[in-house]
């Protein structure tokens, strides 16, 4: 059996005296889309940033493509980061750059591609996300859904093998949200990439996921496939996915 693309072993994270994540263990296989759900403020984004090489955990090991990421040299970490792409929750687009320039930015900064090669790749990804017409427009001149698609295009500009999506449908209407997830699935299939995504929209989680995990109270509960998640026995999972007001997630001491 092939080694996991991503594997976390006994990962914990503290900020000051506050425990954010506790003893996290799971792995993501090649080509899988692992979706993280769970109540706001319980550590989903922190966990995603640990996997993406942005935050070093307080304890434990993060293995990327068989390498212990946080034990590598700075240059070794950079080599692995070049295999990763990330869509940040609020897109993190540069307001002073056009759509085309936003996609081209990581290519200019981290590759030796010629201007013509960069322009060709920018055109390819604008087309892939349906934004050919928006090349010269600035982020504030396009809609929220278009900004999200632009963020996805920039995350993919370096042809990453692993892509991290932090709440890719946040703030979007249901139809646009479904289209964004359809786009993520299409691009993942075409590129045979591995992905980890965060969402609190269970309909989109079921649409997107190969496997689902719920981050709650600093723990990760891996619930499995969408079908397995819907019948999972943990009462915290049941309350979250059904949206019931009464249950362990809303009990007060």
Could you characterize the architecture of this molecule?
The protein is of the alpha/beta class. Helix content is 37%, strand content 24%. It is built from nine helices and ten strands. A six-stranded mixed beta sheet has the order 6-7-8-3-9-10, sandwiched between helices. Strands 2-1-4-5 form a four-stranded antiparallel beta sheet, with helices on one face. Helix 3 packs across helix 4, helix 3 packs parallel to helix 5 and helix 5 packs parallel to helix 6. The chain is globular. 36% of the residues are buried. The model has no long low-confidence stretch (mean pLDDT 92).
Quick structural gist:
This protein has about 250 residues and is of the alpha/beta class.
Continuous helix count = 9
Shape: globular
Main β-sheet: number of strands, strand sense, barrel status? 6 strands, mixed
Q: N- to C-terminal separation?
A: 46 Å
Rg result: 19 Å
- Average per-residue pLDDT, rounded, comes to 92
Structural class: alpha/beta
Number of strands: 10
Q: What is the share of helical residues?
A: 25-40%
What order do the SSEs take from the amino end to the carboxyl end, as H and E?
EEEHEEHEHHHEHEHEEHH
Order of strands, main sheet, comes to: 6-7-8-3-9-10
Strand content: 15-25%
- Describe the oligomeric state of these chains in a short phrase: single chain
Stretches where pLDDT falls below 50 for ≥5 residues?
Answer: none
